[in-house]
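Ex. 9. Protein: (rape) hypothetical protein.
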Amino acid sequence: LLVFHNLVHNRNTVLKISSQNIIRFSFQTNATCIKSLLSATCRVTLAKRETVTLIVTTTSDPASINPAAALLAMPGWTAGPILPPDMKSFVNKQTRVIQHDGSIVKEDDLDSWWEEAASIAVDEVIFLSRHTAVSNRPALTVHPIGVLHLKEEESPSSVTPPQGGKPGWAALTSPRIGPWLRLLKKMAEAYSLVPEFEITLEGTHHGPITSKPTMFLENGDTEEYWKRQDAAQVMALVSE
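Predicted structure tokens for (rape) hypothetical protein:
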């Protein structure tokens, strides 16, 4: 009834049907209210809302900032606004890179924060980060995020788990995780990182909390490999 009333009494009615698409109805009519829908001439236009991919990096991690530097050295990047508290951003078409100084797994809700600060919707979040494992084997990995392995009683909601997130939570998975895994393998082979580096899809095991489809792209397993410029270049090419 509310939609009917709006269509009848307003010659320009906007209906938001998703976070990305807006339908705008424009009616031209001289009819009375009751006859409006019968005699109106309707023009429908579909406007796509601007959305961006948000790539998150941290200056505290060489396996994050080195791929970011390699990515930002590629053509098309310009400096974006500095967002509080002193967080740099960079722009290239529908992609944004942000750099903060904190822990990559504990800076929660960066996608929501970005949308509010920059007034641009985020459709997915990519984190560039270090990889660690007990094997100490060099690896380039992609993986979704979450801490489904922890139960509430093991880590109360008032306490952030050591690797971020919250017990029982998992982020939506980026639909690009499969294609990026295949591309990561191809680029690693092109740069002769295979078989030295293992190319893997990891399980879900840490934060931070996000509300948009998310994945991590990581390099490890020790400080020696976190600083590898050839691995950083491969990560940048995959993220391009």
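Check your answer against this statement. The two ends are 47 Å apart (CA to CA).
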